[in-house]
Specification:
The chain is elongated. It is built from four helices and 30 strands. With 401 residues, the protein is α/β, with parallel strands linked by helices. Mean pLDDT is 87; it is low at 1-28 and 370-401. The strands form five sheets. The protein has a 17-stranded parallel β-sheet that branches. Strands 17-18-20-23 form a four-stranded mixed β-sheet, with no helix packed on it.
Amino acid sequence: MRLIRVEIVNSLKTLAACALVAAGPAQATTSVQAGLQAMRELNLIVLDDLETGHDVEGKTFVGGNVTGNSATFGIGNASQGAKASSRRTLTVGGNVGPQININNGSNGGQGPVATTPGILIGGNVGGLNINAQGAAVDVGGNFGGNLNLSNGQVVNIGGSATGSINGSNNSQTVRAGGSINGNANGAAFITNLGAGWNAASTSVAVAAERSLLQTNLTDLSIHLRDLTLASNPSSITMGNQGPIFNAVAGGNGFALFNVAGSLFNTGQIDFTTVGGPMPIIVNVSGTQINWTGNAVGGYNASLNPFIIWNFHEATTVDFKRMVHGSVLAPLARITNITPIEGSVVARSFKQGGEVHLGTFGFDDLPGGGTGVVPEPASWAMLIAGFGLVGAAARRRRAAAA
């Protein structure tokens, strides 16, 4: 019996090694890593509806509808930027009611905000002005904007183009489920493709991405909430006007704070940092957060790419003062009246101030969370191997009997 157990263990070791070899370099990305990557690429992520009226310097994703007043997306920032990606300047799952403007400003001095400028809208678009050469336009519903096509531009509309689209050469293409209002002037106008002919690449695609973002960002928030340090060198000192966050790199290379939301019902918020550049994770408990603390001293724009304010259980977050650093609040309705400088993640957002670039700037995930998920072929090999080992063991028992 001892010989049988030894051989089984050895067989399992061999099978596990084979499975790891089969997995090779194609190691799956965890949801937590994917959530962090989204915060690095996108300046604003709203899982449900956005009520706008103020600019966003970087790229924006909205899972629901966009309402409110005219706003500009992708205006850029010469000093701080976001991780470069192929995402559109603006992606929306539902309808866009107000006039929107699409720019393609500087991404922290490292090229333009969007390598693929333009919009991807699942529903209808009320008005659109594009200041980005060759921007891609994909709309699932009707398009009410006015658009002068640029060289090589392609526009796909699920319904009808009721605004005015004007071409200028034969390298431009406009496809629509219904009619197109405007002048081709050499461009190809392809009409009556059927309502919603491009739904798979617009409304369906954005709905799938919204679901994935919700999972990934929620998992990220939980991961950060559960971070611990055996010995935490960071601390908070209460000054005359409010808290001073003394951020010191812990054993894992990041600074960690766990605070109550009531801490921000104060006059001022200050920071000191000890050590090299490091992620600073601030987990904030409480369901209703009223942020009235004014940024002073070391709490300034230089910390924008370093901090994640993780409102892991908040349902409402009301910012009355400027915020430096990224805001992660996947369960909350956020309101603001002053700028937020960093990535913003919200369930819904009533935007009363600009959202500025300076998204979270670290590749490495604080606290790890980089577990490898075996590929399907590897799982199949392991399962089949377990079956073979079991069969071998049964045969040996029968022979011994």
